[in-house]
Amino acid sequence: MFYKLTKEQQQIMISDIQRFFSQERDEEISEFAAERVLDFVKESLAPHFYNAAVMDAKRVVEQQFASLDDEILTLERPIGK
Protein backbone atom coordinates (compact mmCIF):
# COMPACT_ATOMS: atom_id res chain seq x y z
CA MET A 1 0.00 0.00 0.00
CA PHE A 2 1.48 3.34 -1.04
CA TYR A 3 0.15 6.72 -0.04
CA LYS A 4 -0.45 8.89 -3.10
CA LEU A 5 0.67 12.47 -2.67
CA THR A 6 -1.40 15.26 -4.10
CA LYS A 7 0.23 17.40 -6.76
CA GLU A 8 0.37 20.26 -4.25
CA GLN A 9 2.02 18.10 -1.55
CA GLN A 10 4.57 16.83 -4.04
CA GLN A 11 5.36 20.34 -5.26
CA ILE A 12 5.87 21.58 -1.69
CA MET A 13 8.24 18.69 -0.99
CA ILE A 14 10.18 19.31 -4.19
CA SER A 15 10.55 22.98 -3.25
CA ASP A 16 11.70 21.95 0.23
CA ILE A 17 14.33 19.65 -1.25
CA GLN A 18 15.57 22.39 -3.56
CA ARG A 19 15.75 24.82 -0.62
CA PHE A 20 17.62 22.24 1.47
CA PHE A 21 20.23 21.71 -1.25
CA SER A 22 20.59 25.45 -1.67
CA GLN A 23 20.94 26.27 2.02
CA GLU A 24 22.84 23.23 3.28
CA ARG A 25 24.99 22.32 0.30
CA ASP A 26 25.15 25.64 -1.54
CA GLU A 27 23.97 23.73 -4.60
CA GLU A 28 21.13 24.58 -6.95
CA ILE A 29 19.28 21.54 -8.26
CA SER A 30 16.59 21.35 -10.89
CA GLU A 31 12.99 20.44 -10.19
CA PHE A 32 13.63 17.12 -11.95
CA ALA A 33 16.62 16.35 -9.70
CA ALA A 34 14.60 17.27 -6.60
CA GLU A 35 11.80 14.99 -7.81
CA ARG A 36 14.31 12.13 -8.12
CA VAL A 37 15.45 12.75 -4.54
CA LEU A 38 11.81 12.70 -3.43
CA ASP A 39 11.24 9.42 -5.29
CA PHE A 40 14.28 7.93 -3.56
CA VAL A 41 13.02 9.01 -0.14
CA LYS A 42 9.52 7.66 -0.84
CA GLU A 43 10.76 4.31 -2.13
CA SER A 44 13.77 3.65 0.11
CA LEU A 45 13.42 5.59 3.34
CA ALA A 46 9.72 6.25 3.92
CA PRO A 47 8.85 2.56 4.54
CA HIS A 48 11.18 2.54 7.56
CA PHE A 49 9.42 5.57 9.06
CA TYR A 50 6.01 4.13 8.19
CA ASN A 51 6.78 0.82 9.88
CA ALA A 52 8.08 2.63 12.97
CA ALA A 53 4.84 4.64 13.11
CA VAL A 54 2.79 1.44 12.81
CA MET A 55 4.69 -0.08 15.73
CA ASP A 56 4.17 3.10 17.79
CA ALA A 57 0.43 2.99 17.07
CA LYS A 58 0.34 -0.71 18.01
CA ARG A 59 2.01 0.03 21.37
CA VAL A 60 -0.46 2.83 22.11
CA VAL A 61 -3.44 0.58 21.33
CA GLU A 62 -1.99 -2.21 23.46
CA GLN A 63 -1.48 0.19 26.40
CA GLN A 64 -5.00 1.53 26.07
CA PHE A 65 -6.42 -1.98 25.89
CA ALA A 66 -4.49 -3.02 29.01
CA SER A 67 -5.80 0.03 30.83
CA LEU A 68 -9.36 -0.70 29.71
CA ASP A 69 -8.98 -4.34 30.75
CA ASP A 70 -7.87 -3.24 34.23
CA GLU A 71 -10.80 -0.84 34.53
CA ILE A 72 -13.28 -3.51 33.50
CA LEU A 73 -11.89 -5.89 36.12
CA THR A 74 -12.56 -3.30 38.84
CA LEU A 75 -16.29 -3.71 38.06
CA GLU A 76 -16.30 -7.33 39.22
CA ARG A 77 -18.45 -8.03 42.27
CA PRO A 78 -17.43 -10.44 44.98
CA ILE A 79 -19.38 -13.68 45.03
CA GLY A 80 -20.52 -14.81 48.48
CA LYS A 81 -20.58 -18.45 49.49
Q: Helix share of residues?
A: over 70%
What structural class is derived from the secondary structure elements? mainly alpha
Distance between the termini: 57 Å
> Which residue ranges are poorly predicted, with pLDDT under 50 across at least 5 consecutive positions?
none
Q: Provide the gyration radius in Å.
A: 23 Å
Largest sheet: none
Mean pLDDT: 93
In DSSP terms, counting alpha (H) and pi (I) runs of 4 or more, how many helices? 2
How many beta-strand elements? 0
Give the topology string: H per helix, E per strand.
Answer: HH
Beta-strand portion reads under 5%
Apparent shape = rod-shaped
Structure commentary:
The protein has 81 residues and is an all-alpha fold. It contains two helices and no strands. The protein has helices at 7-25, 31-73. The longest helix is centred in the middle third of the chain and has 43 residues, at 31-73. It is rod-shaped and about 80 Å long. It starts with 6 loop residues before the first helix and ends in an 8-residue tail after the last helix.
